[in-house]
Design goal:
This protein has about 500 residues and is of the alpha+beta class. The chain has a single domain, classed as Cytochrome p450. Helices cover about 50% and strands about 10% of the residues. It is built from 17 helices and 12 strands. The strands form 4 sheets. It has a 5-stranded mixed sheet. Strands 4-12-9 form a 3-stranded antiparallel sheet. Strand 6 and strand 7 form a beta hairpin.
Length: about 500
């Protein structure tokens, strides 16, 4: 008995010491949050839908919640007021990015704009993107490219409708967005059967998106990265090898054309912009390395194709659930565009109700519920709290868009709330930030704005839509996280009926 009690005493003492040292230590004066478990911290609080779970934590701890996940300090921003403070007053102090472990594969993060540390290389890439690629004058020049791709989509729908086949909306939208980007980047029609490597590139991009969304132990415990316990690095390496190989071949072909001075009867595309770049060779690079060009190209696909297609999928879903809103959009399109004319990008500014529908969809269903995480560059003060260097910051755009403090009936789809309002998603109205805000706001916003309205408006103007008989409206509003975006749980499949004469 004496030995047993002695053993028990030592066991209790050992366990107590282990718990003391292994229990996650919250930094002093850190934002409040649930107490974590030994080793894992608050990992259990991060369910399949963490953007929803965080709303419950706000009720208990307030609009800034502090978490400890493995070895990482995390704060979550859950209100427009706190977001405004963050972006207005602390943007520079949190200008770095958290770099997920899988993005270190093949040094993807070293050529990335979205993940680049705040500094000169990031500024150069950002300037090229915003001033040379996605500026209004270049988007105006490339409008015929998007017209061609959307026409291709409309003819495909027309053929399916003629044969009474249901339209698989997510797939249709992804390939259309993918093709628009391919035309703008490479001047290639990626849906042309004669265009080699397209299926491989598309598959690789989808693989990268899916792997980037898998919860990774190496993000919580960086020292586990090399062990690759979940096999994510291996799979990401394979996807990147395929994607980089294809992008590299496209780049090499273009370089050879330029050396041979092959005359091109086309607008200058994004690849031309990257190859034409000349820096001072001192603070800025003299030119872009092949690796940087390849990664920049892949990032445009990763950041653009899925988010755009997912948002338009939600637009269609919400309107199918709200026939009265669908009728208003169609009436406006008939009035502004004309019943037998095609919608053009030049019509967008006059389509106020369509703009309201897109805004309301983005409010309820931001494609990325948490904005891309920021990281503290140094120890800093925020909202009266002490935030250690390298703390990760997640802004919950989904929760902010549904906050009853800022929105009447926040969970209802009501486009009328935006009619007559000057509120937009350009980063200055902090209750509505689906594209982020501040110096690391989404670079692709100008193109996304055009694509969202042009594609969704064309679908609505050219066809009448109805759900398949087996689908009810009650089945429509169910979310499911797929890849990095917030998709519907069930893919939308609908029947289309042609309304207008489409010109070939």
């Amino acid at each position: 008995m004496e030995i047993s009690w002695s053993f028990l005493s030592w066991t209790v003492l050992t366990l107590s010491l282990l718990i003391h040292f292994l229990w996650p230590k919250r930094p002093r004066n850190f934002p409040p949050g649930p107490r974590g478990w030994p080793m894992i911290g608050n990992m259990l609080e991060l369910s399949k839908f963490p953007h929803r779970e965080m709303v419950a934590l706000k009720e208990k701890y307030g609009p800034v919640v502090g978490l400890r996940v493995g070895a990482s300090n995390i704060i979550v921003i859950l209100s427009a007021d706190v977001a405004a403070n963050f972006f207005k007053n602390h943007d520079a102090e949190f200008a770095d990015r958290f770099v997920p472990d899988v993005t270190k594969c093949r040094d993807f993060h070293k050529g990335s704009l979205s993940l680049a540390p705040y500094g000169t290389p990031w500024r150069v890439l950002r300037r090229i993107g915003t001033m040379e690629m996605l500026v209004g004058r270049r988007l105006n020049v490339t409008a015929p490219i998007r017209r061609k791709c959307v026409d291709q989509m409309l003819f495909q729908i027309e053929n399916e409708a003629r044969n009474l086949k249901p339209i698989h909306v997510p797939q249709l939208l992804f390939y259309t967005s993918f093709n628009i980007l391919g035309n703008m980047i490479f001047s290639r029609n990626l849906l042309d059967p004669s265009c080699k490597d397209v299926s491989g590139l598309c598959k690789a991009i989808k693989g990268m998106l899916e792997l980037s969304a898998v919860p990774n132990l190496a993000d919580a415990y960086p020292w586990l990265g090399r062990l690759d316990l979940q096999g994510l690095r291996c799979r990401m390496n394979n996807a990147l090898d395929e994607a980089i190989g294809i992008a590299s071949r496209f780049v090499q072909e273009r370089k050879e054309e330029r050396q041979m001075r092959v005359e091109q009867n086309r607008p200058k595309d994004f690849l031309d912009v990257l190859l034409d770049y000349e820096g001072d060779g001192k603070e800025e690079p003299a030119d872009f390395s092949e690796h940087t060009i390849n990664i920049f190209i892949l990032e445009l696909f990763v950041g653009g194709a899925d988010t755009t297609s997912v948002t338009i999928d939600w637009v269609m879903s919400e309107l199918l659930c709200k026939p009265e809103c669908m009728a208003k959009v169609k009436d406006e399109l008939n009035r502004v565009v004309g019943p037998n004319n095609k919608l053009e990008e030049s019509h967008i500014d006059e389509l106020h109700y369509l703009q309201a529908v897109v805004k309301e969809t983005l409010r309820l269903h931001p494609p990325v519920p948490f904005l891309v995480p920021r990281k503290a560059i140094k120890d800093t003060k925020f909202m009266g709290y002490d935030i250690p260097k390298d703390t990760e910051v997640f802004v919950n755009a989904w929760a902010i868009g549904r906050d009853e403090d800022n929105w009447a009936e926040p969970n209802c789809f009501n486009p009328e709330r935006f009619l007559g309002s000057k509120m937009d998603y350009k980063g200055q109205h902090y209750e509505f930030i689906p594209f982020g805000s501040g110096r690391r706001m989404c670079m692709g916003l100008p193109l996304a704005h055009r694509m969202l309205h042009f594609i969704s408006g064309s679908l609505l103007h050219c066809f009448d839509w109805e759900l398949e008989k087996s689908v009810t409206r009650d089945m429509m509003d169910v979310e499911k996280m797929r890849v990095l975006t917030l998709r519907k749980a069930e893919d939308l499949q609908v029947m289309a009926k042609k309304r207008t004469t489409l010109k070939k």
